[in-house]
Input
Amino acid sequence: MAGIQCGMAKFLSPSNLAPVAIMIGVIIMLTGKRRSTKDIASIVVGFGLLFVGISSMSSAVEPLKDNAAFCNIFRITGTQSVFLGIVAGAAVTAIIQSSSASVGILQSLAAAGLVPFGAAIYIIMGQNIGTCVIAILSSVGAKE
Output
């Protein structure tokens, strides 16, 4: 019974369903006649592309979980103090300049068991702050 549940979970994972959603959405967009139908198909395609992007980003950062220095940034700073976890999340997000990529990295490290749950909460808070830092840095030098 557990094997069936595990197989069903793999079958229904977003990485497997996303290409199907994209294909169905594109077909509906091309064949649909009403504007509302095409808008809904566009939303389905958008969600499919979002999950394909997250899946490819997670596989791209897969080698980082073997890098001890990178893992220690999240694991040690997040567990030592709240402030260091927030700073680490903000710094990594500001350097990468993408909060979704930073969250994807943290998600893959947490899934591998390299970052504890308590540390991940503070790191995510820091990643949200790091996203704001990107906007602030891009507005530096702008007039009004």
